[in-house]
């Protein structure tokens, strides 16, 4: 299923690379994740061509290289990555393989979107593992906070304008459109989640921290703080105890991870596991950022139940 | 087509270099019936590289310190395998190989669990990154293997005797020490190749050509030359498939070798029936 989906995606990627010959001077932008791809697409409009490497239902920590990724990168004018070491496991090798100096780190053709945001979970005085701080420069999963998306969009628009000054007014106008789209929806999301402010939740990996912080949900803990390393039994027992003490009723679980461990913890803690997409394209009907957040917000609210229940456990 | 050569040229060349030494070593491994020894040694090397990465935050996985530590761990593994050969009569050597593999893999997880970050980078060490190989790396690896190949040429007579006539060899010489040398060289080869190509591809290059040629002949040199030919053929087929259908290169090459073996097995069956 997943293989099929991703091969379709790759086919589209190759097809778009082959068909769209650069008869006019459009910028070729490659993004690592679909969320960044969406931002670039909205901001760049018809002045740029966007390709995305990692599908929405793939774990961006790990990616198996394919020839087409390097071919696509070898023709790119701008590579936009999330940064904060999210893609450290595979992107450096891809950049090296692409043999395209213009997109090397440090050059104008390379942008880490996370440089535009204020990272959270930055370890202070050494790395604090109990809070799940696996990334030495902070939590890279910034895109589920809509305000961070606006910041990243501005950074992308600025960089596009630097690479293609003639189209700068277009990028600025598109950026304003994007900000408007997010602002309008933001009010609705905040209104929907407002009654749940202070509600305790747990999550599998630290992907939902920015989301939780923005909308006032409180993280109790994580199942797996280092991607790919199974949690220790003691950690899980602690988590169950904390969840029970805090009356945390849901575990937000990224839908590309195996939910088995989350289900066990949920059962012990009398909570439920909520399988959620965390990137655009990570589930059906998540083709835009608004739709993705609509889905996440809707599912979280449905899982938490009527707001009165939440208020019963202040 | 030129695109294919630009991007896959180094990977293809690297596979040729790897095939050169692995086909020869694979014939020994098959004859000694220590089939999974490369997985075991590779896992020990990975454990060494993991320790390097965890104890120093700024270490590159392919860096000098990581490689040295990986090789140091491999020396321990080679010693274990060389000096347990006489225990064969009580315990099959495959059992020891399996145990070392399992323990080294689990130890890797334990070491990684003590690292606060950067596990992404080392977790996939055994997968290899064939696609991002540079010509420089190909040249370095070719030089290293040429050197090891030279040593092997010098000791070939004794090592072949130990592999093909172990009982006579045990009476004639101190096999443990020759075995130690053999496994040390083997470990050095594997440490490099696994980081480049991943365990699956290294295992395939080692075993499949040796198995296919054994279906048709027992003579050493004809098998070696045929094995080299097969190594290049399988590599070319896999790389081409990887390009045409946009597949992960290492995995495509492994499956191509599997198909080659199927074809060879069918050919053998037809020949047997005809003869």
Task: Walk me through what this model shows.
The complex is a heterodimer of chains A (314) and B (275). Chain A is built from eleven helices and eight strands. The longest helix of chain A is centred in the middle third of the chain and has 26 residues, at 168-193. In chain A, helix 2 (34-44) packs across helix 5, helix 3 (67-74) packs across helix 4 and helix 5 packs antiparallel against helix 6 (168-193). Chain A folds into two domains: 27-117 and 135-188, 3-Layer(aba) Sandwich (Rossmann fold); 194-311, Rossmann fold. Chain A has a four-stranded parallel β-sheet with strand order 2-1-3-4, with helices on both faces. In chain A, strands 6-5-7-8 form a four-stranded parallel β-sheet, with helices on both faces. Chain A starts with a helix and ends with a helix. By secondary structure, chain A is α/β, with parallel strands linked by helices. Chain B is mainly alpha-helical. Chain B is 83% helix and 0% strand. Chain B has ten helices and no strands. In chain B, helix 1 (2-32) packs across helix 8 and helix 1 packs antiparallel against helix 9 (220-245). The radius of gyration of chain B is 19 Å and the shape is globular. The N and C termini of chain B lie far apart (43 Å). The model of chain B has no long low-confidence stretch (mean pLDDT 88). Chain A binds chain B through residues 7, 10-11, 14, 61-62, 64-68, 70-71, 74, 85, 88-90, 93-94, 96-97, 99, 123, 127, 129, 133-136, 226-230, 232, and chain B through 3-4, 6-8, 57, 109, 112-113, 115-121, 123-124, 127, 129, 131-134, 242-243, 246-249, 251.
């Amino acid at each position: 299923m997943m293989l099929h989906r991703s091969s379709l995606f790759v086919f589209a990627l190759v097809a778009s690379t082959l068909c769209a010959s650069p008869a006019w001077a459009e910028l070729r932008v490659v993004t690592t994740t679909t969320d960044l791809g969406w931002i670039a697409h909205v901001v760049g409009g018809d002045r740029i061509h966007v390709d995305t490497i990692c599908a929405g239902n793939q774990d961006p920590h790990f990616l198996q290289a394919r020839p087409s990724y390097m071919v696509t990168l070898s023709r790119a004018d701008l590579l936009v990555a999330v940064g904060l070491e999210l893609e450290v496991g595979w992107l450096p090798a891809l950049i090296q393989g692409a043999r395209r100096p213009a997109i090397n780190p440090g050059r104008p053709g390379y942008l880490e979107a996370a440089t535009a945001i204020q990272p959270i979970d930055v370890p202070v005085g050494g790395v604090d593992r109990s809070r799940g701080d696996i990334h030495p420069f902070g939590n890279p999963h910034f895109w589920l906070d809509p305000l961070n998306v606006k910041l990243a969009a501005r950074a992308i628009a600025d960089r596009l304008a630097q690479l293609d000054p003639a189209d700068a007014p277009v990028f600025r106008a598109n950026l304003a459109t994007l900000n408007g789209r997010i602002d309008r929806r933001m009010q609705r999301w905040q209104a929907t989640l407002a009654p749940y402010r202070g509600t305790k939740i747990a999550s599998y990996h630290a992907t939902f921290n920015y989301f939780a912080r923005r909308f006032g949900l409180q993280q109790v803990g994580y199942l797996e703080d280092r991607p790919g390393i199974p949690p220790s039994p003691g950690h899980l027992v602690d988590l169950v105890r904390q969840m029970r003490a805090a009356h945390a009723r849901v575990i937000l679980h990224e839908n590309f991870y195996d939910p088995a461990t989350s289900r066990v913890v949920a059962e012990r803690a009398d909570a439920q596991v909520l399988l959620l997409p965390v990137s655009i394209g990570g589930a059906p009907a998540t083709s835009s950022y608004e739709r993705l957040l609509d889905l996440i917000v809707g599912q979280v609210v449905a899982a938490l139940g009527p707001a009165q229940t939440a208020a019963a456990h202040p | 087509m030129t695109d294919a050569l630009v991007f896959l040229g180094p990977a293809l060349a690297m596979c040729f270099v790897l095939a050169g030494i692995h086909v020869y070593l694979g014939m020994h491994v098959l004859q000694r019936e220590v089939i999974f020894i490369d997985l075991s040694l590779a896992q020990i090397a990975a454990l060494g590289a993991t320790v390097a990465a965890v104890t120093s935050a700024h270490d590159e996985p392919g860096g000098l310190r990581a490689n040295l530590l990986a090789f140091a761990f491999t020396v321990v593994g080679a010693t274990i395998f060389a000096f347990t050969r006489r225990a064969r009569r009580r315990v099959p050597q495959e059992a020891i190989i399996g145990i070392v593999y399992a323990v080294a893999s689990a130890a890797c997880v334990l070491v990684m669990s003590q690292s606060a970050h950067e596990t992404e980078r080392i977790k996939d060490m055994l997968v290899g990154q064939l696609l991002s190989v540079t010509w420089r790396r190909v040249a370095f690896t070719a030089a290293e293997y040429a050197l090891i190949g030279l040593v092997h040429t010098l000791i070939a007579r004794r090592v072949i005797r130990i592999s093909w006539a172990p009982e006579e060899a045990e009476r004639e010489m101190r096999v443990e020490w020759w075995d130690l040398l053999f496994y040390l060289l083997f470990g050095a080869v594997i440490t490099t190749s696994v980081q480049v190509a991943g365990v699956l591809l290294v295992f395939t290059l080692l075993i499949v050509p040796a198995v296919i040629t054994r279906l048709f002949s027992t003579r050493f040199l004809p098998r070696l030359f045929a094995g080299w030919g097969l190594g290049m053929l399988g590599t070319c087929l896999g790389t081409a498939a990887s390009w045409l259908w946009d597949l992960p290169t290492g995995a495509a090459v492994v499956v191509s070798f599997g198909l080659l073996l199927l074809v060879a097995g069918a050919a053998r069956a037809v020949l047997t029936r005809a003869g």
